[in-house]
Amino acid sequence: MAEGKLGEPGFSERSCAPLAEGHLARLYAIAEADHAVFAARRPEYLDRRVAVTLAQGRRRTTSTAVPG
User: Fold this and answer.
1) pTM for this one?
2) Are 35 and 42 in contact (CB under 8 A)?
3) Which helix (H) or strand (E) holds 32?
């Protein structure tokens, strides 16, 4: 992985530290809350969750731009 300072190209804040039980409990709580929000909009999916994926990706930002 490239080394550098925060904000420089190639710099990553990702960690290679192992996940502990506390991390998984926190991720479980986040997944539960996310599913509750989704199921509030789509109640037919309330009992249809099959799996939750642990993934790391780019942080989303809110944009006020109108797609054109």
Assistant:
1) 0.55
2) no
3) helix 21-41
Residue 42 is encoded by which pair of tokens? 């789509």
- Helix, strand, or coil (residue 23): helix
Encoded tokens for 43: 């109640």
Token pair listed for 35: 């599913």
In whole angstroms, give the CA distance from residue 44 to residue 22. 31
The residue written with tokens 């731009």 in the block is: 65
Taking the C-alpha atoms of residue 42 and residue 31, their distance in angstroms, rounded to an integer, is: 16
- pLDDT one-digit tens code per residue, 14-67: 777 888 899 889 989 999 999 999 999 999 999 988 888 877 666 555 555 555
